[in-house]
Design brief:
By secondary structure, the chain is an alpha+beta fold. It has one domain: Double Stranded RNA Binding Domain. It has 3 helices and 6 strands. A 4-stranded antiparallel β-sheet has the order 1-2-3-6. A hairpin with a 2-residue loop joins strand 4 and strand 5. The chain is globular, with a radius of gyration of 15 Å. The N terminus is likely disordered.
Length: 100
């Protein structure tokens, strides 16, 4: 699947890396966050639970209050790894607001 980034210079588009994770890497992943590219992440908790989330950078005037911290990097959950496959998570991330 070819993804087009119209707002970026053609040379910059060459350096955007997507689809870093493989299914084997995900199955053997330990606790932490793993970036697949273009805002798609896999979070592995200490209990071994794996879930997908999408994170993007909002415009500077559009910030989110998260507890006492203000951020312009909101996150959106996409589902558990046991239900949402790697391919499905990538499809969902491609339809997220900042990837259009």
């Amino acid at each position: 699947m070819r993804v087009v980034y119209p707002q970026l210079h053609p040379l910059i588009r060459l350096f955007i890396v997507r689809y870093k994770l493989t299914d084997a890497q995900i199955r053997s992943a330990t606790q932490g966050d793993y970036h697949d590219g273009s805002g798609l992440f896999l979070r592995v908790k200490s209990s071994g639970t794996k879930s997908w989330f999408y994170q993007w950078t909002a415009p500077p005037h559009f910030v989110f209050a998260k507890g006492h911290k203000i951020t312009n990097r909101p996150k959106m959950g996409l589902g558990a790894y046991s239900i949402i496959t790697l391919a499905r998570a990538r499809e969902k991330a491609d339809r997220c607001p900042r990837n259009r």
